[in-house]
Amino acid sequence: MLFRLEKRDYPSIREQSFAYGRGSCWPLASQKFTERIMDWIKRISPEFPPPSLEDNRADADRVITGLQQALKSTCLTFPLDLMKKLPSFLRQHGYRIEVVLHRGTNRWHVIDFFPAGQKASIYGLAIDLGSSTIAVRLVDLQDHLVKEEISFLNPQVEIGKDILTRIHVATQGMGLERLQALVLNRLNEHIQALTAKHAIKAERVSALCVAGNTTMTHFFLGLDPGGIFREPYIPAVNKVPLIRAGALGLAVNSRAPVFVFPNVGSYFGGDLIAGILASGFHRKKAVSILVDVGTNAEVVLGNEEWLVACAGAAGPALEGGVSSMGMMAGPGVIDKVAIDTGFGVWSIRTIGGGRPVGICGSGLIDLAACLFLAGMIDQKGKFVKARCGDRFGVKEGIAHILIVSEADSGTGKDLVLSQPEIDSLMRSKAAMYTILVTISRMVNLSFKDVHSIYLAGTFGTFIDPNSAITLGMIPDLPHTVYRPLGNSSLAGANRALLSVEDQLEVTDIQSKITYVELNVNQDFMSLFSAAKFIPHTDETLFPSVKIPDAL
Amino acid sequence: MLFRLEKRDYPSIREQSFAYGRGSCWPLASQKFTERIMDWIKRISPEFPPPSLEDNRADADRVITGLQQALKSTCLTFPLDLMKKLPSFLRQHGYRIEVVLHRGTNRWHVIDFFPAGQKASIYGLAIDLGSSTIAVRLVDLQDHLVKEEISFLNPQVEIGKDILTRIHVATQGMGLERLQALVLNRLNEHIQALTAKHAIKAERVSALCVAGNTTMTHFFLGLDPGGIFREPYIPAVNKVPLIRAGALGLAVNSRAPVFVFPNVGSYFGGDLIAGILASGFHRKKAVSILVDVGTNAEVVLGNEEWLVACAGAAGPALEGGVSSMGMMAGPGVIDKVAIDTGFGVWSIRTIGGGRPVGICGSGLIDLAACLFLAGMIDQKGKFVKARCGDRFGVKEGIAHILIVSEADSGTGKDLVLSQPEIDSLMRSKAAMYTILVTISRMVNLSFKDVHSIYLAGTFGTFIDPNSAITLGMIPDLPHTVYRPLGNSSLAGANRALLSVEDQLEVTDIQSKITYVELNVNQDFMSLFSAAKFIPHTDETLFPSVKIPDAL
Predict the structure, then answer these.
(1) Which residues neighbour B19 within 8 Å (Cβ) at sequence distance 6 or greater?
(2) Sign of the dihedral defined by the CA atoms of residues A520, A526, A529, A533, in that order
(3) How far is B378 from chain A (nearest CA, A)?
């Protein structure tokens, strides 16, 4: 038995980021940044004469008139707190100032002013509020380039790894305030480090765009999440009003507007809408599907005319939650497996190339597909003892297969996969496929009619469609149909940060989506049972999968 | 020598207030309150179904849709802090709530919500921010009636009686914050007492309208007043943005909108614009004049098509500032004087009817006019010793006339009027008349063409046109031309509190006014010299004044 440990090359964050730079992201890579994009945030040096006896307009009125001329609009809000510092500021800087504004629904709003002619740019933050990982992009709002992207663990994990626990905590005493403070404080620490690193003053961070699922959005805003997981599943808010960074105590300009992606419902949040925005399939004639797989599988199907969405529990198998060696992607984590059945050679790739310490979702799918093709598990996902050979074992009555021995692992212990863990994966993959079938049936659509299937999220990005098709998790379609999106929630937030049109599109997408509740669908359960086979009880659905001969 | 002390009957505040009640005030007393008035603040009980599995819209979205239907408008802002308390509130009150909103420029804004079906009304405050007296009206926003009107001393007087001292203090260290805190704290004390007295919860006070001169407005908002009294006389702000009561820490609903009347310039403030609004002459074809006399005399001339304004120093003589016995109107203050020259009988009336303790502006004008008609002062305003008789005296080289002897006064001391005090009054009356002549000449208008002359402010209201004409302070026109306005600043604030049309008119008035600087007018000085005679060097201008024979 040999290990070939290869180094997995992730595209560097910088490369990734620059590709997203000008408001585009992967599926729209060919789209060029043009002046069509209407900037959300604008920086203007208004022209106005200094005061005199002949022109003794008030300071604020003078600046406002200059701005109205420059913007060719009289609809302008200049907040009182800025008016307070205006008189001395104007005199100090010889009446030459530069004003930062944001474009609202029907008027401009002044965010701040600075001495004219400063070289420093103005910046924005795109934020993906994941329940386990939070990603932040620092974006230059003038050249639209990403300065840096960071990600870090959501500190709410310390209160509860799963969202239900957090919601329960939120409804007790000061739980909600605590959950909100956790995420805001951690966010502020990282924002401060990020701006310090790039020598950017906090006051020049002038806008934020935030996408998260419904519960994360509620926590972020300090909104009561109590109704989300309780029948009839009512969020406090779907359409979030534009707020100011100061209202949340964020470590940026206190008047920076914060655009929070709206939710469709309790189980379909702003992160998904950001994903749709990033994919751009809501603007195409052809019908596409967007899938975000995690503990919940969220699916949207549609085109430029309509969008249908649903979400269903896929089980924690794909997020490293159940398998004893399961974990989130990171150094030493197995993300790819191949088994040469002829020679019995296992090839295992780990992230970073080090000794294996565990396995992530995409690695687990590869592993299960390989075990099936090698005949080590059968169509029901049960171990075929005879084919497993030495690798098979039983501990405390539970069957397992050895993946990496203690001698080769990075933990000093055997890495094994147990029968219950495979059973859990079987349920997850069955749920995933069933959700896709159900939503397609609802609109009388065959998978063959689907132009693209976008795979969102870290998991979706690194999944090997071959393996997922082998398991019968996703439809047996040409590989070109499958399009990994990366962190599409972050990419969507990045877009909305730069363009008012994209923000309007967000509203449009939100109002266009028809959300269907899967949990109340009887049909779903019989479809689910049929999908708990590899690849499926109806093998004709997966013609490309070569089912190994039984012993 | 006899005193006839009469009781002066002031109309009770309640009577006055109810007369102003339905958005009208004296010159518009005939105008009926009709549905034409578009309420600024609205109270609505939106209709919406409680949530169900079939209708699982978010709480906020459900309420907003209900409001949009009721308001027949989709333009609606629902602030985040209210969304926070919405979910539990809705469940607690069975989804029956009542929402208070205010109508903005192009959208509705939610102020607060309450359980549906409450009997308690909603209230607003109209505030006149005088530099010496602050007046507050508590107004029921539903029936438009005044619940109570109060007035109290502006506590900034302890820092400086005159505005220049206060501005000087404001530009030093924390002076501005101190001045602002003084007025806000005192205001809050009175608001709390007022709402407690009427058993009104602070959160049900949903709107404020504030009118003051430019400097008072700056202090109220914490704006730098440094440029106001320094060439080229630049206020920080003329058009004040709509702010929230919470931003000023006012003891009302923190989201209550605060409408602050705009200024035209350093010497022409929102109190005057409120006065114009209250008088309504800006809506008439005929040309009228509005005069507000204090240390500064502010004058507006115009009609529905144009408005010209100016302001000039009238001297403190008319505000009780210079005369040793001068004081503001109050109990025991002489407000009317008559001298029967035939019998040498002086009739003196005091406010409240008690023993005299001092004299107010209108009393001083009466007194001076009487002294002139009795030949005790000549056309230059100098004492005619022979005519003054026993009342004449000299102390420390300064000539004076006895008004009330120590035996009859309420202070136990002689009340006297000195030559320098009369000289000061002569300058004030000359300034007043010159300002009126100058502004009329600017627009090529004769006083005969003026339909009405509105006298604003407490002083203006109680002035006896006979006496003022005798002194040559105001033009020699039929008495019906003169129309006292009372506290027109407060009346104007009351109007804008109730009606969006009136707020729009305020903007219209402000932008229509052409302000002319008198201090830079050379013509003014020669006109001023000619007016320093009683009634004038050109006696033909005052045909109704019978000049007494010289001795």
Answers:
(1) B25, B26, B29
(2) negative
(3) 40
Q: Which residue has the tokens 């005192």?
A: B186
- Which residue in A297, A212, A207, A256 sits closest to A518, CA to CA? A297
Average predicted confidence (pLDDT) for chain A: 88
Instruction: Tell me if A106 sits within 8 A of B106, measured CB to CB.
Output: yes
Closest by Cβ to B238, choosing from A53, A57, A222: A57
**A53 contact residues in B (CB cutoff 8 A):** 231-233, 517, 520
Any CB–CB contact under 8 A between B104 and chain A? no
pLDDT in tens, B439-475: 999 899 999 999 999 998 767 778 899 999 999 999 9
Q: Which CATH number fits domain A121-260: 1.10.10.10, 3.40.50.2300, 3.40.630.30, 3.30.420.480?
A: 3.30.420.480
User: For chain B, which residues make up each domain, given as ranges?
Assistant: 41-115, 121-260, 281-316+425-541
Of A375, A382, A367, A308, the C-alpha closest to A334 is A367
Q: Would you report the helix, strand and coil content of chain B in percent, each value rounded to 5? A: 35, 25, 40
3-state secondary structure B178-204: HHHHHHHHHHHHHHHHHHHHCCCCHHH
Residue ranges of A 32-91 with Cβ closer than 8 A to chain B: 51-53, 55-61, 64, 75, 77-81, 83-84, 86-88
Tokens for A77? 């809000």
Which pLDDT tens digit goes with each residue over A266-296? 989 999 999 999 999 999 999 999 998 776 7
The C-alpha atoms of residue A213 and residue A229 are separated, in whole angstroms, by 13
Joined together, the tokens standing for residue B522 give 């050379």
Q: Output the CA–CA distances (angstroms, integers) from residue B146 to A472, B18, B19, B20, B500, in the order listed.
A: 75, 6, 9, 8, 18
Whole-structure pTM value: 0.87
HSE at residue B43, side-chain half, CA atoms within 13 A, is: 20
Beta strands in A472-533 (DSSP E): 482-486, 513-515
> Which residues does chain A have within 8 Å of residue B59's beta carbon, measured at their own beta carbons?
227, 234-237
Please name the residues between 516 and 545 in chain B that touch chain A, using a CB distance below 8 Å. 517, 520
Q: And the tokens for B138? A: 């508590």
Instruction: State the average pLDDT over residues B511-519.
Output: 85
Give the CATH number of domain A37-115. Answer: 3.10.20.880
Quick one: pLDDT at residue B497?
97
The CA distances from residue A282 to A36, A304, B290, in Å, are: 19, 5, 63
Candidates B177, B179, B178, B202; CA nearest to B189 is B202
**CATH class for the region spanning B281-316+425-541:** alpha beta
- Cβ contact B80–A263 (<8 Å): no
Highest mean pLDDT among A328-332, A450-454, B515-519: A450-454
Query: Tell me, what's the ipTM?
Result: 0.86
Distance in Å, alpha carbon of B404 to nearest chain A alpha carbon: 48
B222 in contact with chain A, both atoms CB, cutoff 8 A: yes
B240 and A84 in contact by Cβ < 8 A? no
Identical fold for domains A37-115 and A121-260, yes or no, is: no
Helix (H, G, I), strand (E, B) or coil at A300: strand
**Banded model confidence at residue B150, pLDDT cuts 50, 70, 90:** very high
Six-digit token pair at B417? 């009027």
* Beta pairing class for B76-77 and A345-350: unpaired
Give the contacts of B214 (CB within 8 A, at least 6 positions apart).
B225, B228, B235, B263, B265, B266, B267, B268, B269, B270
Nearest to A179 by CA among A164, A189, A166, A194: A166
Is the confidence at residue A311, as pLDDT, over 50? yes
Query: Rounded distance, CA A26 to CA A460, Å?
Result: 14
In the CATH hierarchy, which top-level class contains the domain B41-115?
A: alpha beta
